[in-house]
Amino acid sequence: MTFLYKADPQRGERWAELFAEKAPDIDFHIWPGKADPDKVRYLGVWEPPDRIAERFPNLEVLFSVAAGVDKIDFSALPAGLPVVRMIEPGIVAGMVEYVLWAVLGLHRDMPTYRRFQEERLWKPLPLSPAGGRRVGVLGLGELGRAVLRQLRTLGFQTFGWSRAPHVIEGTMCFGGRDHLPDFLAHCDILVCLLPLTTETTGLLDKNMLACLPRGAALVQVGRGPHLVAEDLLSALDSGQIRDAILDVTEPEPLLPSDPLWVHPRVTLTPHIASMTQPDSAVDVVLENIRRFHAGEPMIGLVDKAKGY
Ligand code: GLV
Question: Annotated active-site positions, please?
Fold first, then answer.
Protein backbone atom coordinates (compact mmCIF):
# COMPACT_ATOMS: atom_id res chain seq x y z
CA MET A 1 0.00 0.00 0.00
CA THR A 2 1.65 3.21 -1.17
CA PHE A 3 1.15 6.93 -0.58
CA LEU A 4 2.75 8.87 -3.43
CA TYR A 5 3.53 12.52 -2.69
CA LYS A 6 3.82 14.97 -5.58
CA ALA A 7 4.48 18.45 -4.19
CA ASP A 8 7.41 20.41 -2.78
CA PRO A 9 10.08 17.67 -2.30
CA GLN A 10 11.78 19.44 0.58
CA ARG A 11 8.62 19.46 2.64
CA GLY A 12 8.03 15.93 1.37
CA GLU A 13 11.07 14.79 3.38
CA ARG A 14 9.27 15.73 6.57
CA TRP A 15 6.12 13.95 5.36
CA ALA A 16 8.26 10.85 4.77
CA GLU A 17 9.65 10.95 8.33
CA LEU A 18 6.19 11.37 9.78
CA PHE A 19 4.72 8.53 7.71
CA ALA A 20 7.61 6.26 8.73
CA GLU A 21 6.92 7.07 12.37
CA LYS A 22 3.11 7.11 12.42
CA ALA A 23 2.10 4.73 9.61
CA PRO A 24 4.95 2.29 8.99
CA ASP A 25 2.54 -0.01 7.10
CA ILE A 26 2.16 2.58 4.34
CA ASP A 27 5.03 2.92 1.84
CA PHE A 28 5.67 6.61 1.32
CA HIS A 29 7.31 7.80 -1.90
CA ILE A 30 8.16 11.26 -3.16
CA TRP A 31 7.39 11.83 -6.86
CA PRO A 32 8.66 10.58 -9.23
CA GLY A 33 10.23 7.97 -6.94
CA LYS A 34 10.25 4.26 -7.58
CA ALA A 35 6.76 3.40 -6.45
CA ASP A 36 5.00 0.53 -8.20
CA PRO A 37 2.06 2.36 -9.84
CA ASP A 38 -0.26 -0.58 -9.16
CA LYS A 39 0.37 -0.23 -5.43
CA VAL A 40 -0.43 3.49 -5.25
CA ARG A 41 -3.65 3.81 -3.24
CA TYR A 42 -3.21 7.41 -2.11
CA LEU A 43 -1.81 10.32 -4.04
CA GLY A 44 -0.97 13.64 -2.35
CA VAL A 45 -0.60 16.52 -4.81
CA TRP A 46 -0.33 20.24 -5.35
CA GLU A 47 -0.49 19.86 -9.16
CA PRO A 48 -1.65 16.37 -10.12
CA PRO A 49 0.05 14.36 -12.87
CA ASP A 50 -1.89 13.74 -16.08
CA ARG A 51 -3.68 10.48 -16.93
CA ILE A 52 -4.21 9.59 -13.28
CA ALA A 53 -6.66 6.75 -13.99
CA GLU A 54 -4.30 5.00 -16.43
CA ARG A 55 -1.17 5.53 -14.35
CA PHE A 56 -2.63 4.47 -11.00
CA PRO A 57 -5.40 1.93 -11.61
CA ASN A 58 -5.81 1.19 -7.87
CA LEU A 59 -5.87 4.76 -6.61
CA GLU A 60 -8.46 5.19 -3.84
CA VAL A 61 -8.13 8.79 -2.64
CA LEU A 62 -6.60 11.92 -4.12
CA PHE A 63 -5.34 14.27 -1.41
CA SER A 64 -4.58 17.91 -2.07
CA VAL A 65 -1.63 19.07 0.04
CA ALA A 66 -3.14 22.57 -0.13
CA ALA A 67 -6.44 24.03 1.04
CA GLY A 68 -7.21 25.14 -2.50
CA VAL A 69 -7.92 22.50 -5.18
CA ASP A 70 -8.02 24.83 -8.18
CA LYS A 71 -4.96 23.14 -9.73
CA ILE A 72 -6.97 19.93 -10.01
CA ASP A 73 -9.07 19.38 -13.12
CA PHE A 74 -11.96 17.28 -11.81
CA SER A 75 -13.09 16.40 -15.33
CA ALA A 76 -9.81 14.52 -15.89
CA LEU A 77 -10.36 12.26 -12.84
CA PRO A 78 -12.32 9.03 -12.56
CA ALA A 79 -15.85 10.03 -11.49
CA GLY A 80 -15.84 7.99 -8.28
CA LEU A 81 -12.39 9.06 -7.04
CA PRO A 82 -12.75 11.05 -3.80
CA VAL A 83 -10.74 14.28 -3.65
CA VAL A 84 -9.84 15.69 -0.25
CA ARG A 85 -8.50 19.16 0.35
CA MET A 86 -6.20 20.12 3.20
CA ILE A 87 -8.01 21.27 6.30
CA GLU A 88 -5.53 20.99 9.14
CA PRO A 89 -4.83 23.07 12.25
CA GLY A 90 -1.46 24.37 10.99
CA ILE A 91 -2.83 25.89 7.80
CA VAL A 92 -5.73 27.46 9.70
CA ALA A 93 -3.38 28.98 12.31
CA GLY A 94 -1.10 30.43 9.62
CA MET A 95 -4.00 32.06 7.82
CA VAL A 96 -5.39 33.52 11.03
CA GLU A 97 -1.97 35.05 11.80
CA TYR A 98 -1.60 36.59 8.36
CA VAL A 99 -5.11 38.03 8.18
CA LEU A 100 -4.88 39.45 11.70
CA TRP A 101 -1.55 41.06 10.83
CA ALA A 102 -3.07 42.56 7.68
CA VAL A 103 -6.35 43.71 9.24
CA LEU A 104 -4.66 45.19 12.31
CA GLY A 105 -2.12 46.95 10.11
CA LEU A 106 -4.84 48.44 7.93
CA HIS A 107 -6.99 49.28 10.93
CA ARG A 108 -4.06 51.14 12.53
CA ASP A 109 -3.13 52.90 9.23
CA MET A 110 0.29 51.27 8.97
CA PRO A 111 0.55 51.66 5.17
CA THR A 112 -0.06 55.40 5.61
CA TYR A 113 2.52 55.67 8.39
CA ARG A 114 5.00 53.82 6.13
CA ARG A 115 4.43 56.47 3.47
CA PHE A 116 4.76 59.22 6.08
CA GLN A 117 8.06 57.73 7.21
CA GLU A 118 9.38 57.79 3.66
CA GLU A 119 8.57 61.52 3.63
CA ARG A 120 10.04 62.06 7.16
CA LEU A 121 6.60 63.24 8.16
CA TRP A 122 5.71 63.03 11.85
CA LYS A 123 1.93 63.12 11.68
CA PRO A 124 -0.39 61.34 14.11
CA LEU A 125 -3.79 60.37 12.69
CA PRO A 126 -6.94 59.95 14.79
CA LEU A 127 -7.19 56.55 16.42
CA SER A 128 -10.52 54.77 16.00
CA PRO A 129 -11.40 51.77 18.17
CA ALA A 130 -11.80 48.31 16.63
CA GLY A 131 -15.49 48.40 17.56
CA GLY A 132 -15.99 51.18 15.05
CA ARG A 133 -14.36 49.20 12.21
CA ARG A 134 -16.30 46.81 10.01
CA VAL A 135 -14.40 43.83 8.65
CA GLY A 136 -15.98 41.50 6.11
CA VAL A 137 -14.79 38.06 5.08
CA LEU A 138 -15.68 36.56 1.70
CA GLY A 139 -15.80 32.79 2.08
CA LEU A 140 -17.10 31.13 5.24
CA GLY A 141 -15.27 27.80 5.21
CA GLU A 142 -12.90 26.63 7.94
CA LEU A 143 -10.44 29.44 7.25
CA GLY A 144 -13.00 32.23 7.00
CA ARG A 145 -14.74 31.16 10.19
CA ALA A 146 -11.46 30.84 12.13
CA VAL A 147 -10.43 34.33 11.00
CA LEU A 148 -13.81 35.80 11.98
CA ARG A 149 -13.60 34.22 15.43
CA GLN A 150 -10.33 36.04 16.18
CA LEU A 151 -11.53 39.30 14.63
CA ARG A 152 -14.56 39.22 16.94
CA THR A 153 -12.24 38.62 19.91
CA LEU A 154 -10.38 41.78 18.99
CA GLY A 155 -13.67 43.69 19.00
CA PHE A 156 -14.18 44.35 15.29
CA GLN A 157 -17.67 44.43 13.82
CA THR A 158 -17.69 41.38 11.58
CA PHE A 159 -19.57 40.45 8.41
CA GLY A 160 -19.44 37.36 6.25
CA TRP A 161 -20.49 36.37 2.76
CA SER A 162 -20.78 32.97 1.17
CA ARG A 163 -22.64 31.50 -1.81
CA ALA A 164 -24.99 29.71 0.60
CA PRO A 165 -26.53 31.27 3.73
CA HIS A 166 -24.65 30.70 7.00
CA VAL A 167 -25.43 31.50 10.62
CA ILE A 168 -22.42 32.54 12.71
CA GLU A 169 -22.96 33.96 16.16
CA GLY A 170 -21.62 37.49 16.43
CA THR A 171 -21.16 37.91 12.66
CA MET A 172 -23.77 39.25 10.26
CA CYS A 173 -23.86 36.82 7.33
CA PHE A 174 -25.02 37.34 3.77
CA GLY A 175 -25.67 34.52 1.32
CA GLY A 176 -25.76 34.42 -2.46
CA ARG A 177 -24.68 36.64 -5.30
CA ASP A 178 -27.73 38.92 -4.99
CA HIS A 179 -26.64 39.93 -1.50
CA LEU A 180 -22.99 40.51 -2.35
CA PRO A 181 -23.34 44.29 -2.97
CA ASP A 182 -25.14 44.69 0.34
CA PHE A 183 -22.38 42.75 2.15
CA LEU A 184 -19.65 44.81 0.46
CA ALA A 185 -21.34 48.04 1.53
CA HIS A 186 -20.61 46.96 5.15
CA CYS A 187 -16.86 46.35 4.70
CA ASP A 188 -14.30 48.97 5.74
CA ILE A 189 -11.78 46.16 5.38
CA LEU A 190 -12.58 43.29 3.00
CA VAL A 191 -10.80 39.93 3.30
CA CYS A 192 -11.08 37.53 0.36
CA LEU A 193 -10.80 33.88 1.41
CA LEU A 194 -12.90 32.32 -1.35
CA PRO A 195 -12.11 29.13 -3.20
CA LEU A 196 -11.38 29.65 -6.89
CA THR A 197 -14.24 28.32 -9.02
CA THR A 198 -15.85 29.42 -12.29
CA GLU A 199 -18.32 31.41 -10.17
CA THR A 200 -15.66 33.27 -8.18
CA THR A 201 -13.22 34.00 -11.03
CA GLY A 202 -13.19 37.74 -11.61
CA LEU A 203 -15.68 38.28 -8.79
CA LEU A 204 -13.79 41.28 -7.42
CA ASP A 205 -14.17 43.58 -10.41
CA LYS A 206 -14.85 47.28 -10.74
CA ASN A 207 -18.58 46.88 -10.07
CA MET A 208 -17.99 44.99 -6.84
CA LEU A 209 -15.13 47.23 -5.71
CA ALA A 210 -17.48 50.18 -6.27
CA CYS A 211 -19.94 48.65 -3.77
CA LEU A 212 -17.40 49.02 -0.93
CA PRO A 213 -17.54 52.15 1.20
CA ARG A 214 -15.22 54.81 -0.22
CA GLY A 215 -11.71 54.39 1.20
CA ALA A 216 -12.13 50.70 2.09
CA ALA A 217 -9.10 48.39 2.19
CA LEU A 218 -8.57 44.95 0.72
CA VAL A 219 -6.78 41.85 1.99
CA GLN A 220 -6.53 39.27 -0.81
CA VAL A 221 -5.60 35.81 0.44
CA GLY A 222 -7.80 33.76 -1.90
CA ARG A 223 -6.46 33.21 -5.40
CA GLY A 224 -5.12 35.74 -7.90
CA PRO A 225 -7.91 35.31 -10.48
CA HIS A 226 -10.62 36.39 -8.01
CA LEU A 227 -9.46 39.94 -8.51
CA VAL A 228 -9.42 41.98 -11.70
CA ALA A 229 -6.06 43.64 -11.06
CA GLU A 230 -6.56 46.57 -13.43
CA ASP A 231 -9.88 47.37 -11.72
CA LEU A 232 -8.07 47.34 -8.37
CA LEU A 233 -5.41 49.71 -9.70
CA SER A 234 -8.11 52.15 -10.92
CA ALA A 235 -9.92 51.90 -7.58
CA LEU A 236 -6.64 52.63 -5.75
CA ASP A 237 -5.92 55.60 -7.97
CA SER A 238 -9.40 57.05 -7.55
CA GLY A 239 -9.31 56.64 -3.75
CA GLN A 240 -12.21 54.16 -3.78
CA ILE A 241 -9.74 51.69 -2.21
CA ARG A 242 -7.15 53.17 0.15
CA ASP A 243 -4.78 50.21 0.42
CA ALA A 244 -4.50 46.61 -0.71
CA ILE A 245 -2.52 43.75 0.80
CA LEU A 246 -2.15 40.99 -1.75
CA ASP A 247 -0.70 37.56 -1.04
CA VAL A 248 -1.92 36.02 -4.29
CA THR A 249 -1.68 37.32 -7.84
CA GLU A 250 -2.22 36.25 -11.42
CA PRO A 251 0.13 34.93 -12.60
CA GLU A 252 2.43 33.72 -9.82
CA PRO A 253 5.15 34.80 -9.65
CA LEU A 254 3.89 38.22 -10.69
CA LEU A 255 5.56 39.42 -13.89
CA PRO A 256 8.42 41.91 -13.26
CA SER A 257 6.60 44.49 -15.41
CA ASP A 258 3.39 44.32 -13.38
CA PRO A 259 2.38 47.73 -11.98
CA LEU A 260 1.26 46.11 -8.70
CA TRP A 261 4.94 45.75 -7.70
CA VAL A 262 5.47 49.47 -7.46
CA HIS A 263 2.06 50.88 -6.59
CA PRO A 264 2.49 52.89 -3.37
CA ARG A 265 -0.78 51.58 -1.96
CA VAL A 266 -0.11 47.91 -2.59
CA THR A 267 1.69 45.56 -0.21
CA LEU A 268 2.67 42.28 -1.83
CA THR A 269 3.73 38.98 -0.32
CA PRO A 270 4.63 35.88 -2.39
CA HIS A 271 1.74 33.50 -1.54
CA ILE A 272 2.99 32.85 1.98
CA ALA A 273 -0.11 33.73 4.01
CA SER A 274 -0.34 30.15 5.12
CA MET A 275 1.28 26.82 4.41
CA THR A 276 0.35 23.26 5.22
CA GLN A 277 2.32 22.14 8.26
CA PRO A 278 3.47 18.54 7.73
CA ASP A 279 3.31 17.60 11.41
CA SER A 280 -0.38 18.39 11.79
CA ALA A 281 -1.26 17.63 8.13
CA VAL A 282 -0.04 14.03 8.26
CA ASP A 283 -2.27 13.38 11.28
CA VAL A 284 -5.27 14.62 9.30
CA VAL A 285 -4.31 12.57 6.22
CA LEU A 286 -3.93 9.42 8.33
CA GLU A 287 -7.23 10.11 10.06
CA ASN A 288 -8.84 10.49 6.63
CA ILE A 289 -7.36 7.19 5.46
CA ARG A 290 -8.85 5.57 8.55
CA ARG A 291 -12.21 7.23 7.90
CA PHE A 292 -12.14 6.21 4.25
CA HIS A 293 -11.76 2.55 5.18
CA ALA A 294 -14.35 2.82 7.95
CA GLY A 295 -16.84 4.39 5.52
CA GLU A 296 -16.91 7.60 7.58
CA PRO A 297 -16.98 11.10 6.02
CA MET A 298 -13.45 12.42 5.37
CA ILE A 299 -12.35 15.86 6.62
CA GLY A 300 -12.20 18.27 3.67
CA LEU A 301 -13.93 15.98 1.15
CA VAL A 302 -14.42 18.06 -2.01
CA ASP A 303 -17.81 18.43 -3.63
CA LYS A 304 -16.69 18.23 -7.26
CA ALA A 305 -19.90 19.84 -8.51
CA LYS A 306 -19.23 22.93 -6.37
CA GLY A 307 -15.48 22.83 -7.06
CA TYR A 308 -14.28 23.04 -3.44
C1 GLV B 1 -2.48 27.64 -0.39
O2 GLV B 1 -2.70 28.55 -1.12
C3 GLV B 1 -3.40 26.57 -0.18
O4 GLV B 1 -4.37 26.44 -0.95
O5 GLV B 1 -3.20 25.79 0.76
Answer: 223, 271
